[in-house]
Design a protein that fits this description.
CATH superfamily of the largest domain: Hypothetical protein, domain 2
Distance between the termini: 70 Å
Radius of gyration: 24 Å
Number of strands: 9
Number of domains: 2
Strand content: 5-15%
Shape: elongated
Helix content: 40-55%
Amino acid sequence: MSIVSERLIIWHGQHGRHHLPWQKSRDPYAIWLSEIMLQQTQVNTVIPYYARFMQEFPTIDSLAQASLDTVLSLWSGLGYYSRARNLHITAREVMHYYQGQFPCTRETIQKLPGIGRSTAAAIAVFSFGQREAILDGNVKRIFARYYGISGYPGENKTQNLLWKKAEESLPVHYHNGKIEAYTQALMDLGASVCTRHAPRCKICPLQSECVALKEDRVNQVPTAKPRRPLPQKEAIFLLLMERHNILLEQRPSPGIWGGLWCPPEIGVGIDVINHCQRNLNIEVKAPIKLPTLDHQFTHFKLRIHPQLLQVTSSDSLITLSKFIWTKPMNALAKGIPAPVRKLIKQTFLSGHSSPGI
């Protein structure tokens, strides 16, 4: 057994997490769901979403049979919505191509939508006890510091070296729960000890051989992602009110917020009243401009300019299935992105009547 794996397994027995909801199961469906939710999301945020998903969809068959709208509504607020869309697609693929049996090898699991090498390895470890290396963001940081590997982990050369070290560090004898304990230890160490900022090196089980610690480079390793200013986009959101209902439009999939429900969006500079007449067959009063709302995605920033509009003529209201009229409170139960949720709450549900309505 490697020094790394031996020390981490011992450390995990004393200090690791043992009571997370998905740790009670060997069901690959439950493990897969948790691993997808944990991508770029904190454990404490995931737990209530995981519980609601497992209650609503206790089996992969129930998830496959659900509508995407239902899946997205349960996911609403968790972000990175492509994960939810891929969950739904994968559930249907497993039912269709694998007769409902989740694949049991890392190579096969990795072929499913939305599952990369590290996630596939984690599912193979925790569901089937297989000897596979993981390398998520936390684990990259651990190995970069321990082995003193410079370079941004997102670059191929650095990432390939980290994968090599991850494989070399695996326990040789991995039966009787050792591979599971080791893998969970890596996750726990990265989350609680070898953190990005202010790492707790004095209590780390790997401190005696950690190259970055010896060379006083802990705060420089791993190399940070090269910073580039995020481009900013702007859009107008049309908050159309008709008999205390608001209009929502289902976004096309794929794309940003694909499959989610949002107020109709138009570009800045477009005449709002004319757009409503020509494109939505709706007559409206002059718009009331609301405070802007900023939202940051991974690759750009979005500045939202909400405009509140009272519908004056509903003779030819939209009947297309991608549009719905709904009460603001009911909109919160649908799959809507976080800034839209915030906008609806601030505008319609804050305890004050909507301006001009």
